Protein: N-acetyltransferase domain-containing protein
Organism: Phytohabitans houttuyneae
Amino acid sequence: MDEVSIRLRPVAEEDLVMFQRFATEPGLIGLDWTGFKDPQAPVRRFAVDGFLGAESSRLMVEVERERVAAGFVSWALRDFGGPTKHWEIGIALLPEWRGRGIGWRAQAMLCDYLFTHTPVQRIQAGTHPENIAEQKSLVKAGFALEGVVRACEFRDGRWCDGYLYSRVRDDPSPLRS
Ligand SMILES: CC(C)(COP(=O)(O)OP(=O)(O)OC[C@H]1O[C@@H](n2cnc3c(N)ncnc32)[C@H](O)[C@@H]1OP(=O)(O)O)[C@@H](O)C(=O)NCCC(=O)NCCS
């Protein structure tokens, strides 16, 4: 299958329907489904800052040829207790766009964007032991596995482990090699 050409772009009003679907359709978002969320929350957030805030943001992953949004990437400020901050990124694609090489490239593009426009040293991402697609995507996007975070989230009726990955500023970008 040909590589699908993508770009990251700011959220537009018509994208809010997708965010509302992820908040209200059980399982659409994948393993991150943790129950119904307020479907009006994306509308309120969009009105405040268009999902481009100092502490958390989203960009849409757009398929260039079809000019349709395949999903979105997100990032939020995190710290380990001291003054130094790092980003934690996330991604969700609609099912019809998964498995076509979009996820790893969108996350690699987001890292390049964040290292270009913000001075952070570290970008991290967590995923689930059963999410093979995201584990492979993160490695393809230049991330390294740091370890298992035990019993870090409650989902689907039980406490689950997570896998923690990171890409630091000096790690090579797979998009520039
Ligand atoms: C996880 C997700 C972002 C991955 O993006 P994607 O576009 O589907 O994955 P890609 O096409 O970029 O594939 C990357 C690698 O994973 C592999 N892969 C893709 N889907 C897979 C699957 N279902 N099972 C196993 N491997 C898979 C690909 O083969 C590729 O590896 P390869 O180059 O060695 O062949 C996407 O599937 C998604 O949005 N899923 C639902 C939400 C989610 O899980 N988000 C992450 C939460 S932590």
